[in-house]
Amino acid sequence: MKIALHGASGYTGRLAVAELARRGIDTVLVGRDFSRLHSAAAGTGFEVRRADLHDHDSLTAAFAGADAVINTAGPFARLGAPVVRAAIAAGAHYVDTTGEQQYIIEVFDTFTGAAADAGVTVVPAMADDGGPSDFISHLVADAAGPMDTLTVALWYRGGAFTRGTLRSLDPDLLFDGALRYGDGGWTTYGEASHATWRFPGEDPPVRVSKAALPPVATVPRHVTVGRMEGLLGGSFDVLKDGIAPAVIDALPEGPDDEQRRQGRWTISVEASGPGGRAVRGEVEGTDGYGKTAVIAVEAVCRLVKDGATAGVLAPSQAFDPESFLDFLSGHGVRWHVTTG
């Protein structure tokens, strides 16, 4: 197995380098800056290949011989499509760590046919907020049966964001531009269905806002639901007002190891069916950036070893949801589905 990693010199990319090295996977690091790539590869023995994101031929050549590509370089709406295109051209499966809802829809709309024709599988959104939320939503849907609505709430607390995450957070798209699924398609909408959400073990309920969460773009592709929307827990007034690029540039690249360990995240999903019947599911963990590296590396390993249908797939279409969540349980992630 040979994996190509694009974005290796970034914060999440370096965590992916460490995970690939820990698992002893043959890896090539791809990017435009040799010095930063060599720094990221230090002590691993990984090969380094230079390629310009905007030079399709050089990027495709850099992915040559790889069974799969991991892309951790965002903002994906601006930087992602050339990497997907080059991976498909190189005949390599593709996984990324995007959390950008509108970009995920773009990947499905743009690359499904090309990936199927090339015989490769493309799976966007394999990060802490995307993969687990898609998996638990699928399991909740299985337990619920016919559903009227499916709501996903995500809550981060503790820890800190990276500069890359903040640069990817377009407040107009994340909040006001959030898409809701209904009537067979995705549209913007007005007020969220909830102002607060009861997360497991928390009292009182937590304030939530409507938000452009990844599972809203992926889950309706594999479960039947009348309406689905996403909620983000906590107060994000600063993000809603936007953060000046100069302010972001002055911040640390990302949380240090201790801050990462202190960061906690919870995904809470509720399905409502006829007669008011409700099924809930939760996934909880710590160190979202570290878990993202684990999720992305495990995803490409499963694609290479087990295969999946060619084309662009949601996480639960490419992987068995319960099996993947059980794997994450070995990394400190807790999950359950409750029928009530």
UniProtKB/TrEMBL annotation:
Pfam families in the cross-refs: Sacchrp_dh_NADP
Source taxon at top rank: Bacteria
Domain Saccharopine dehydrogenase NADP binding: 6-123
Coiled-coil zones: none
Annotated InterPro entries: NAD(P)-bd_dom_sf (IPR036291), Sacchrp_dh_NADP-bd (IPR005097)
Signal peptide location: none
Name used for this protein in its record: Membrane protein
UniProt organism field: Phytohabitans houttuyneae
